[in-house]
Design brief:
Length: about 250
């Protein structure tokens, strides 16, 4: 990732708790990705943004060697601490200038990463360079926020608040807006082939949602001006009040 990419050093301590899959789902995700990418047992695979191994640890069991690049040493340290014999080889590196020879890998994996790289076009060129001819890029995505009412309220309020903000733009790197992300790959010469999905439940109370956003747990909030963040929190609280939704979890019997 380039020097302006959004590195996740600050999230290493809580990443697995806030981005992890429900128990057992990680195996289903790995099986789906292996099938979609056509991974063979002797394959050499590269993951862009390998992080703490959320994808790598279960998926590496399908292949001979699983490499990964990431900017954040604390995230990779977490991965190394969890590794238990899996053939995973992480490298601290830049996705726009990777330390691998041409035509090295049989497949590439990328999950929720390219929108965090301002120079994502350079990253696409690099991925194409290190892939063997005809090899695939398996691009994973989480669409939870399109189905989550609170996230929809948050998105609408913060987008409007940012549009109204008179604050001068800073040099802080920001994610590519969600509305632009779906077109990133085809707009840069990648031909879409198979598309598969896996549905699984993620439980989060309104109180937890507000706490996570207020604490800037997610990268979308890291460079968000205070007034924009507060606009999102205010809109979600108003939605809960208007719809008589108790933000606290129900008491256990």
């Amino acid at each position: 990732m380039s020097q302006n990419s959004i590195a996740f050093d600050r999230a290493a301590g809580y990443y697995d708790q806030t981005r992890g899959f429900p128990l057992g789902v990680e195996r289903e995700v790995a099986a789906l990705m292996a099938r979609t990418a056509g991974l063979a047992p002797d394959a050499r695979v590269l993951e862009i943004g390998i992080g703490t191994g959320r994808i790598a640890l279960p998926l590496a069991t399908y292949v001979r060697a699983y490499y990964g690049v990431d900017l954040a040493m604390p995230m990779v340290d977490r991965l190394v601490g969890k590794r238990n014999g899996e053939p995973i080889y992480p490298v601290i590196g830049d996705a726009t200038r990777m330390p691998f020879a041409d035509a090295t890998f049989d497949a590439a994996i990328a999950v929720h990463i390219f929108h965090l790289i301002p120079a994502y076009r350079d990253a696409f060129v690099e991925v194409a360079r290190v892939l063997k001819p005809g090899a695939v890029l398996a691009h994973g995505w989480n669409v939870r926020h399109t189905e989550d009412a609170l996230q929809q309220v948050w998105n609408q309020a913060t987008i409007q608040a940012e549009a109204r903000s008179l604050e001068e733009a800073t040099n802080s790197p920001r994610p590519v807006p969600f509305i632009e992300r779906a077109a990133m790959l085809p707009a840069n010469g990648w031909r879409l082939k198979d598309e598969n999905s896996l549905r699984y439940p993620v439980e989060r109370t309104p109180t937890e949602f507000l706490a996570d956003m207020g604490a800037r747990v997610y990268s979308m909030c890291w460079s968000m001006p205070d007034e924009v963040l507060e606009a999102g929190l205010t809109a979600v609280r108003a939605y809960l009040t208007e719809n008589a939704i108790d933000p606290r979890p129900a008491a256990a019997d």
